[in-house]
Structures are given as structure tokens and as C-alpha cells.
Amino acid sequence: ISQQLAGVKRMPIALAKQSELLKQVDLVKPYVDDLVNVVDMAAIQKAKLKIGVDPLGGSGIDYWRQIGNAYQLDLTLVSEAIDPSFQFMSLDKDGVIRMDCSSPYAMAGPLALKDEYDLAFGNDPDYDRHGIVTPKGLMNPNHFLAVCIDYL
Predict the structure, then answer these.
(1) Rounded CA gap, 53 and 24, in Å?
(2) pLDDT tens, position by position, 43-80
(3) How many whole angstroms separate alpha carbon 2 and alpha carbon 71?
(4) Where is the Alpha-D-phosphohexomutase alpha/beta/alpha domain (predicted)?
(5) Phi-psi region for residue 8, left (φ > 0), alpha (ψ -120 to 50) or beta?
(6) Is residue 4 classed as helix, strand or coil in its secondary structure?
(7) For the chain, which domains are there?
(8) Are strands 137-138 and 130-134 parallel, antiparallel or unpaired?
(9) Taking the model in full, what pTM does it have?
(10) Which of 52, 107, 133, 136 is the most buried (most CB within 10 A)?
């Protein structure tokens, strides 16, 4: 970066798409198909949970959609907006935008769903963190992780 990217080879995206340098790979289907090997999807399906998902910016929309379809879940995407500007995000307690899915401030959108769904989820935009909302409110992420560790 300090060298202004000197030495980094670049080409127009149209040219890259025509070359063999760029390949399109479906990462969603293999992930969705393999969930059944990690999570008891039949139990979730049998429970007939009404699930709400706020994708908080959109990067996981296709994953959630395919999970719902593949496992015939009652899963609703409450927003399909892809928003790289973070305008969807509620301010945290200190007035800063913070993608902290354990914060009730950051999870205000999914928390508003607690009375509409048996279970609601929110993920940060790059989908490495999540928040879980039950009818009682935002679940403590450490409690969830403890249950996951025991399950796995």
C-alpha cells in the first residue's frame, strides 16, 4: 500500500472473465448440502419453527434462502437489501456503528422480530458473527457457544 500498489498487475474485469484466471465457483450449494452432516436439520424441520432472518446488509442472503428451501424450513428473509453503506445498522450504545451481534443496540432490527418468530437470526455483513433472538430476547452468545461445544 505504501508503494501505491506498484508492481501489482491489473486488468479490466471483462478481460479477466474471458481469461482462465477467473473461475466462477458455487460455494453456497456445497455448504448448504453439508449442513446436514453437522446440524440435525431433520429435528429443526420437525420442530416446525417459524424462523426470521435479518441478513444485516445482505452478504448471506443466498445462503439463508437455499438453507430454507433445501430443508423445507419456515424461514423468512425479513430484508433482502444489499447495503454496503451500513445504513441498515442501528447505532451501538455509544452512538457508533459497530457490528457486534451480541449487542442489543446493534441487533435492534432482529430484536424487533422476537414476537413474530420462534427464532430469529442476524449476521454481521461478512457472516463471521451472528446473533440469535428468541421470544425472550437476544441470546447470550457465550451460552449458545457452550451448547454448540457440548453438541459437537
Answers:
(1) 27
(2) 999 999 999 998 888 788 899 999 999 999 999 999 88
(3) 48
(4) 29-137
(5) beta
(6) coil
(7) 39-151 (3.40.120.10)
(8) antiparallel
(9) 0.81
(10) 107
Between CA 132 and CA 68 the distance in angstroms is 17
Q: With the C-alpha atoms ordered 13, 19, 22, 28, is the resulting torsion angle positive or negative? A: positive
2: helix, coil or strand? coil
pLDDT of 107 reads 87
| Whole-number Å distance between alpha carbons of 151 and 131 | 18
Residue 93 burial (C-beta neighbours within 10 Å; 0-12, 13-18, 19+): exposed
- The residue written with cell numbers 441478513 in the block is 55
Which residues, given as ranges, of the chain have pLDDT below 70?
Answer: none
Cβ burial, residue 46 (10 Å; 0-12/13-18/19+): exposed
Determine the straight-line distance between the first and last CA of the chain, rounded to whole angstroms. 42
Q: What are the strands of the beta sheet with 74-77, ordered from one edge?
A: 74-77, 50-54, 119-123, 130-134, 137-138
> What is the structure's pLDDT at 76?
96
> How many other CB atoms are found less than 10 A from the CB of residue 83?
14
Q: CA triplet 48, 138, 49: central angle to 5 degrees?
A: 0
C-alpha Rg value of the chain to the nearest Å: 19
